[in-house]
Amino acid sequence: MQAMILAAGLGTRLRPHTLLRPKPLFPVLDQPLLLRIIDDLRRAGCRRIVVNAFHLRQQIASLLTGAGDIEIQLEEMELGTGGGLRLARSRFGAQSVLVVNGDLFHNLDYRLIMEHHRQAGNDATLVLHDRPPHNKVLTDGDRNILSFTVEAAGSVVAGGNQPLAFTGIQVIEPALLELIPAQGFYHSIDWYRQLIELGHRVRGLTVSGHCWSDIGTPEEYLQLHGRLLNARAERQTPFWLGPGVVLGREVCFSDWVAVGRRAMLGDKVQLRRCVVWDGATVPAGTVAEDAILW
């Protein structure tokens, strides 16, 4: 299995946090998203992984230095999802390529996705799910993708087909990357529209009953931690402390809190529904709620 992780985005909806670190390096319970995706790919049997990077790319390069099975594609300009794939074409063999957005947290099985793609004989498979109000991908009864811009997303449209949302996971045949323009910014949706017009088999795989978050906003990032820690509370407390955390006197946590490794919290800090990043210093007397602290 070969895969590419798209990790070059700017993360504008997460500013100012993405001015400090790129979104794929945001920690979830003290592990960067990117490393979690890589671990899941390796467990699925992936032996070649390409990661592209543009925004704060040296942070990603530093994190992955020494990982023998990881190829890092450092991009000097913003290329878009399609442009990044096109630049990576020479890195792939003839086998299908699993492509994963670098900002995902999920429990979907990559092996089952790849197996479905092969058995269906698709040129491209987009993994879809029901996610109002983001349901904009329309398929027909045979799961052929018809459109990416459904009006009134989430409603049932003509023919009775309900639009679905893209999970950020796809499988493609690498030969088709030659159809992406060789220069400049290019969105993969434009490439898919071209493939559909040319008659290629671009189809959806619908999934349900899974854990999934794309951490697109600070609210979604915090909500993911809340779900994880509240589920953990059935066995332990909903408070996560990484190794080397230093707590001052009379520190108070409520609801749920995640504190990354080597963080230092001063005296009488009060946190509720907060994520403290690794290495952060929270001054004495800080009172924070629904916040990302770094």
TrEMBL record:
The keyword Transferase applies. Residues 3-227 form the Nucleotidyl transferase domain. Keywords: Transferase. GO terms for molecular function: transferase activity. It comes from the Bacteria. PANTHER family: SUGAR-1-PHOSPHATE GUANYL TRANSFERASE. This is Nucleotidyl transferase.
